[in-house]
C-alpha cells in the first residue's frame, strides 16, 4: 500500500491537484480580458463594493484548507510541510464531492496568535476556511477566535465532522434500537477535540449532558479531577460528580459507547457490561477500540456498530459532511457554520439512510445489500444524493438562522446542484419537472422484478408517474415488504383476473397475422409484454416500460404488433441522449432499423427532433455519412443526402437540417462556418442521424465510453402511444428517467 501510494503521488505531475482556467484564453482579446487592461474593470467594481468579489472572482467557491500539521490523523505532529499531501487530499475530496475549489495552506506556526493572524489576513481570498489537523487544545482557541473575527465560515473538521456524521448515525441507531435520546447513557473514550465536539453536538441533538461520561487516558473525567486542574477548559464541562474509575467502569450499563481514542482498549467483557441492544461507535483509526467481529460476538442481542473503517458496515467518514456543509454555506454566502446548520446536516444524512439506495452505490460497495437497519444507518460517501440532501438542508438552516447573506429558492437550488454533477442530470431535471406537472399511468410489464419494484416506488415518491405493476400480485407484495418500501403498489395480475376483453382485443388486432383466439388468450395470461401492450392500446394506462429482463427485439415485438407506429409514422427508432460537460447530442437510430432508406432516415430525423424539444433543446439535425455534401456519390451516400434534401424543402420542418456530412463536420463549428459555409447549420448539430444501425450503435458507445458522455436511453420514437424498451441491466435511476420521458410523451399525446 505504501509503495502504491508513493507511486500515485509522484506520478507526473507530482501531487494531486492543479489550477485550471475557467474562461477562454485562446486569443489576444481573451488574454486582454483576463489580465491587463480588462481586469481593471472588475477590480474597480470590487473596490466600490467588496461583495462584488463574489460576482467577479472565485471567492464564492473557494475554500482554504489550512493546517500547521500538529495533529495529522494517525501520524501526529509531523509539521506543516509533511502535512501537505493530506491537505491536497482534502482539496481533492472537496472538488470530487461538491465541486468546491481549494487552496491548501500549510503554515509553519506553533504559536496560536501567529496562526490566527495569518489566517485572518487571508479572509479576502476565501469564501470559507476549513481548519485541519491542529492539535488540541489549541484548535479550540484557534477556531473560536477566527469565528469571532471573520465574516466567512470557519470550520474545524476534526472536531465537527466526526460529530455530525456520528450524530446522524446516532439518530438512526436510537430509532432502530427503540431507545430515547433524552434517556441515553453515553460513554466516551477520548477527551480531545473530536470527543468534546461530538459530545457537545450530541447534546444539541437531545442527549442530556449529565448522561455523558467522558474518559481520557487517566480514567473518568470527574469534578474532583477538574477541581485539581487536571482537565482543560474544554473537556472540563463534561466532568461528572461521581467516583473515579476507568473506562471499564464507565461502560457498565451504558446505552452507547463512542470511541475517539486508541485501538484495542475495549474488551468483549466491557461490551457485555453495557445495557441491552447497545450502540457502539468505535471510531479510532486505523484500528478501532474494539474490532467489529469481536464486538458482534460479545453478546446475543442487537449491537448497532459503526467504525471509521470502510471494510465494515456503517463507516463514520467525514467526507459525508464537510464538502456538502461548505457547499450549502458558500451558496448562501454564510457568515458562519452554526449549530443549526450542523444539526440540519446530521438530520439530512439520517433521513437519506432510510431511502432506497441507488444501484450504482450498491455496485460500488461490492453488491452487498444496503437497506436501513443495524448494518446501514448512515449513507455511503459515493452516494451522489448526499449533495442534494445535505447542502440544501444546510442552506435552508443558514437562511432560517440568519447566517445567510443571500436567500435561495431551495427547489431551484437543488437543480443547480444537480447541474454541478453533470449535464445529464440537468437535462433530466427538465423532463422530471414536466412529468411532475401531470403524472401519467405507466404499465411496468416486468412487475415482479425487484429493480422494477424499487423504480416504481421512486416514481411515486418523486411524483412523476402512477406505476402499474403487471405480474403475480402475491410475489410483488412480498417483495415490497422484503425491501421495506413504504408504498402501496397498484398491481394487475393477468393470471388471477378476468381479462377476456384483453384477449378479444389482441385477437382482433392480430387475427390476420396468424394468431388464433386460443393463442391470444394464452399470450394475455402468460406474456406480460402483450398484456401491457393491450393495456396501453385500450387506454387503461398511458404508457409502458419493458425490456429489463428480455432481449431488446423480443421486448419490442409485442408493442409494435399491438400498438404500432403513430399515424404520421411508418417506423420506430431508438434514440440516445448523450450529455457531455457543455454539450447535449441526440443519436439515432441506435437500436431498431438495420439498413434504413431515405424514407426511414427522413422520418427518424423528424421524430428525434421532436424528442429533443421535450428536453427543451432546439434541434439542429445532421444526417451522417462518410461523405461531405456529395464528395462521394454512391447508393449509400445518396440515402442521407436525399433525406436531408426532403427535410430542407418541407415547409413544416422548423429546424435546421443538412447532410450528408461526416461526423466531424457536423460537430465542429469552424468546419460548418468555414469550409462548408453554405451549410444550413450555423452551429454544431445536436441531432445526429446515423446511416445505419451498425454505425449508430458503434457511434454512441464510442462516444459514451471514450468520449465520457452520459447516455440516457434508448428512447423509442415513432410509436402511436408511449412505449420505451429498457436495456437489460438498467439501474433504478435509468428506469425512473425513462418513466419520466414516457410521462412527458403521454402528456403530449393527451394535449
The gist of it:
The protein contains 32 helices and 21 strands.
Indicate the mean pLDDT. 93
The structural domain count equals 5
- Terminal-residue CA separation: 61 Å
The count of strands amounts to 21
Strand order of the largest sheet: 7-6-5-8-9-10
Question: What profile does the largest beta sheet have?
Answer: 6 strands, mixed
Spans of at least 5 consecutive residues with low confidence: none
- Secondary-structure-based class equals alpha/beta
CATH class of the largest domain: Alpha Beta
H/I helix tally:
32
**CATH fold-type name of the largest domain:** Rossmann fold
Shape estimate = globular
How is the topology of this model organized?
Blueprint: H1 2-10, H2 28-34, H3 40-48, H4 53-56, E1 62-67, H5 79-82, H6 84-98, E2 101-106, H7 112-120, E3 128-131, H8 138-149, E4 154-156, H9 157-177, E5 186-189, H10 193-205, E6 212-216, E7 219-220, H11 223-227, H12 247-251, E8 256-259, H13 268-272, E9 279-282, H14 292-297, E10 304-307, H15 322-331, H16 339-352, H17 359-364, H18 385-400, H19 410-420, H20 423-437, E11 440-444, H21 450-462, E12 465-470, H22 473-482, E13 490-492, H23 500-510, H24 517-526, H25 528-538, E14 543-546, H26 552-562, E15 573-579, E16 584-588, H27 598-614, E17 621-624, H28 635-649, E18 657-661, H29 663-667, H30 669-675, E19 687-689, H31 693-705, E20 710-717, E21 723-725, H32 732-750
Amino acid at each position: 500500500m505504501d509503495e502504491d501510494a508513493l507511486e500515485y503521488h509522484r506520478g507526473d505531475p507530482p501531487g494531486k491537484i492543479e489550477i485550471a482556467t475557467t474562461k477562454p484564453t485562446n486569443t489576444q482579446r481573451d488574454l486582454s480580458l483576463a489580465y491587463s487592461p480588462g481586469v481593471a474593470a472588475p477590480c474597480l467594481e470590487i473596490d466600490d463594493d467588496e461583495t462584488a468579489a463574489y460576482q467577479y472572482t472565485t471567492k464564492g467557491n473557494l475554500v482554504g484548507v489550512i493546517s500547521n500539521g500538529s495533529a495529522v490523523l494517525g501520524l501526529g505532529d509531523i509539521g506543516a510541510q509533511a502535512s501537505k499531501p493530506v491537505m491536497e487530499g482534502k482539496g481533492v475530496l472537496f472538488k470530487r464531492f461538491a465541486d468546491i475549489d481549494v487552496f491548501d495552506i500549510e503554515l509553519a506556526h506553533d504559536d496560536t496568535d501567529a496562526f490566527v493572524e495569518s489566517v485572518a489576513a487571508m479572509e479576502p481570498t476565501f469564501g470559507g476556511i476549513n481548519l485541519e489537523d491542529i492539535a488540541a487544545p489549541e484548535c479550540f482557541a484557534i477556531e473560536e477566535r477566527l469565528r469571532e473575527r471573520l465574516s466567512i465560515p470557519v470550520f474545524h473538521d476534526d472536531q465537527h465532522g466526526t460529530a455530525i456524521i456520528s450524530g446522524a448515525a446516532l439518530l438512526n441507531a436510537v430509532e432502530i434500537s427503540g431507545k430515547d435520546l433524552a434517556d441515553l447513557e453515553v460513554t466516551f473514550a477520548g477527551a480531545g477535540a473530536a470527543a468534546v465536539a461530538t459530545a457537545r453536538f450530541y447534546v444539541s441533538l437531545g442527549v442530556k449532558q449529565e448522561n455523558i461520561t467522558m474518559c481520557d487516558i487517566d480514567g473518568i473525567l470527574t469534578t474532583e479531577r477538574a477541581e485539581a486542574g487536571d482537565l482543560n477548559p474544554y473537556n472540563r464541562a463534561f466532568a461528572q460528580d461521581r467516583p473515579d474509575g476507568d473506562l471499564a467502569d464507565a461502560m457498565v450499563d451504558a446505552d452507547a459507547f463512542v470511541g475517539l481514542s486508541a485501538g484495542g482498549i475495549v474488551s468483549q467483557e466491557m461490551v457485555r457490561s453495557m445495557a441491552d441492544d447497545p450502540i457502539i461507535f468505535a471510531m479510532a483509526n486505523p484500528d478501532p477500540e474494539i474490532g467489529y467481529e469481536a464486538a458482534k460476538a460479545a453478546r446475543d442481542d442487537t449491537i448497532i456498530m459503526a467504525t471509521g473503517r470502510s471494510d465494515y458496515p456503517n463507516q463514520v467518514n467525514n467526507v459525508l459532511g464537510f464538502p456538502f456543509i461548505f457547499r450549502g454555506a458558500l451558496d448562501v454566502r454564510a457568515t458562519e457554520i452554526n449549530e443549526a446548520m450542523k444539526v440540519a446536516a446530521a438530520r439530512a444524512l439520517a433521513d437519506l439512510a432510510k431511502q432506497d439506495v441507488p444501484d450504482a452505490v450498491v455496485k460500488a460497495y461490492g453488491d452487498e445489500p444496503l437497506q436501513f437497519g443495524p448494518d446501514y444507518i448512515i449513507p455511503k460517501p459515493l452516494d451522489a444524493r448526499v449533495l442534494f440532501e445535505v447542502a440544501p438542508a444546510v442552506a435552508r438552516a443558514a437562511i432560517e438562522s440568519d447566517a445567510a447573506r443571500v436567500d435561495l429558492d431551495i427547489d431551484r437550488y437543488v437543480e443547480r446542484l444537480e447541474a454541478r454533477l453533470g449535464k445529464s442530470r440537468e437535462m433530466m431535471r427538465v423532463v422530471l419537472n414536466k412529468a411532475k406537472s401531470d403524472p401519467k399511468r405507466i404499465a411496468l410489464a416486468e412487475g415482479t422484478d425487484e429493480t422494477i419494484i424499487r423504480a416504481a416506488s421512486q416514481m411515486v415518491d418523486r411524483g412523476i408517474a402512477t406505476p402499474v405493476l403487471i405480474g403475480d400480485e402475491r410475489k410483488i407484495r412480498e417483495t415490497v415488504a422484503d425491501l421495506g418500501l413504504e408504498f402501496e403498489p397498484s398491481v394487475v395480475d393477468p393470471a388471477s383476473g378476468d381479462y377476456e376483453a384483453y384477449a378479444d382485443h389482441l385477437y382482433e388486432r392480430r387475427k390476420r397475422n396468424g394468431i388464433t383466439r386460443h393463442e391470444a388468450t394464452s399470450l394475455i395470461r402468460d406474456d406480460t409484454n402483450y398484456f401491457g401492450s393491450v393495456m396501453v392500446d385500450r387506454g387503461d394506462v398511458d404508457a409502458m416500460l419493458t425490456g429489463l429482463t428480455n432481449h431488446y427485439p423480443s421486448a419490442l415485438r409485442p408493442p409494435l404488433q399491438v400498438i404500432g407506429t403513430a399515424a404520421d409514422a411508418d417506423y420506430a427508432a431508438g434514440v440516445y441522449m448523450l450529455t457531455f460537460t457543455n454539450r447535449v447530442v441526440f443519436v439515432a437510430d441506435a437500436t431498431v432499423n438495420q439498413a434504413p432508406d431515405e424514407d426511414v432516415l427522413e422520418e427518424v430525423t423528424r421524430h428525434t427532433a421532436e424528442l429533443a424539444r421535450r428536453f427543451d433543446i432546439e434541434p439542429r439535425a445532421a444526417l451522417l455519412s462518410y461523405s461531405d455534401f456529395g464528395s462521394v456519390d454512391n447508393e449509400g451516400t445518396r440515402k442521407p443526402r436525399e433525406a436531408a434534401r426532403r427535410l430542407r424543402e418541407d415547409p413544416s420542418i422548423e429546424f435546421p437540417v443538412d447532410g450528408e456530412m461526416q461526423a466531424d463536420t457536423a460537430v465542429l463549428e469552424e468546419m460548418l462556418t468555414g469550409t462548408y459555409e453554405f451549410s444550413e447549420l450555423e452551429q454544431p448539430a445536436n441531432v445526429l442521424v446515423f446511416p445505419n444501425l451498425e454505425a449508430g450503435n458503434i457511434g454512441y458507445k464510442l462516444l459514451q465510453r471514450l468520449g465520457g458522455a452520459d447516455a440516457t436511453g434508448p428512447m423509442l420514437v415513432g410509436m402511436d402511444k408511449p412505449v420505451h424498451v429498457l436495456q437489460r441491466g438498467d439501474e433504478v435511476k435509468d428506469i425512473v428517467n425513462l418513466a419520466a420521458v414516457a410521462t412527458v410523451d403521454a402528456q403530449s399525446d393527451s394535449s
